[in-house]
Amino acid sequence: MTGRTVKRGETIRLGAVDGDLQVGRKATIKSEAGGKVVVSGDVIFDGGATVDCSLECGSVEVKAAPHTGGTIKVNGDLTARKGVDVADSLEVSGTACAEGFDVGGHMGAGSVLSKRVRVGGHFRVKGALESDSVDVAGHLSALGKVKVVDLHVGGHAEVGGGTISGSIQVRGHIEVKSRLEYGELQTYGHVSLAGGSKGERLSVLGRVKFSGDSTCRILEVKGAAEAKGDLLAEEIDVLGMMRVTGHLKVSKRLKVLGIADVKGRVDCQKLDVEGRMTADSAVVIDEADVSGELRTVGGMKASSIAVRRGARVTGPLVGEQVEIGERPGFGQWPSVWSEVRGRAGQMTDVEDVYGRSVRIAADSQAKRVFAAEVQMDNGSTAQQVTYTKDLRLTPKYYIHLPPRKTDKLPDPPL
């Protein structure tokens, strides 16, 4: 291999180059036949230069100190069979394809195909982006479809949609324009996901917005979340605030330590409300534990319901076994909300209760109670009690109307 050298500031037309190509600063390379320049070896730049055509080579290297090498501009496609290592910036108008890209400054391209991309500044891609890993210290703008495994962005990120199957870490904001399938997404800023997006895990310290029906297997909201449409998940922890304009469907556990506002119906296997939750209605397959505040219009139905001491429930309760005014169980701390009510001398407060077995504990009050078996502890209050089998009373209970035994109870609202 003989190789070729392009002097500093020189403009030259090339076709095929056997060996390496040495390019001086501020040089311009054009194609002899209007096509592309093919270099069998590597291309080594002394500094900033322009390739006014497509370029195919073994690798690209800029031999200059970081932030002094200038920008490498390729007005066409760039194909490197090995890697691309640029101390400063790289601009490719067409498709950039290489084993890996290491760019110290900014990088821009029409589309990118690689196994690894590392950019020290901002990274802009107008079309498709495909890479196993993308690590950007500045901002990312990938307006086309992406197919990435792991994505790390130090600034803000704008993604057209597609698939990011591994981990996503964004220190700033991230906005997704169309449907995205993602693995584990963690951000300290704001997240905006298009409708139809589907993920494995989402942990938000800032704010997340779902712009349509969305699915996330595990959702952890430490800041604020808003879903415009239905939201489906396997597990949800709400430590901050969450608002859902449609229905909320959780196949396993829903835990509300902060505030959850659902315009539609809540469906889950297990429900823990230590903060405040509002919904049109709620259907829980197994247990519902309320130590904060629960507000529904149509009521809540669960296999077993425990309303802890100092909690408050608006809307009817329907369950097999219902305990009103229970103290927190072993290993369970009372919620801040119920503690405040307890210190203020407020009772555990529920409305209508339907169940097979219902117990109203001390310092607790209910409106109407319909059950096969009812127990009223000392200090408990109810407006009306209707039962079919057994009524157990203590000396210091209060029922506004005389208890009534019947052969058939009214149908519950759920």
What is the share of helical residues?
under 10%
Total beta-strand segments: 46
- Indicate the low-confidence ranges by residue numbers: none
Radius of gyration: 32 Å
Number of helices: 1
**Global mean pLDDT:** 93
Overall structural class, as computed from helix and strand content, comes to mainly beta
Instruction: Compute the separation of the termini in Å.
Output: 83 Å
* Anisotropy-based shape: rod-shaped
Characterize the largest beta sheet: strand count, sense, and whether it forms a barrel: 46 strands, parallel
Strand content: over 45%
Defining traits:
414 residues; mainly beta; 46-stranded parallel β-sheet; 2% helix; 62% strand
Can you put this structure into words, describing what you see?
With 414 residues, the chain is an all-beta fold. Helices cover 2% and strands 62% of the residues. The chain is built from one helix and 46 strands. It has a 46-stranded parallel sheet that branches. The protein is rod-shaped. It starts with a strand and ends in a 9-residue tail after the last strand. The mean pLDDT is 93.
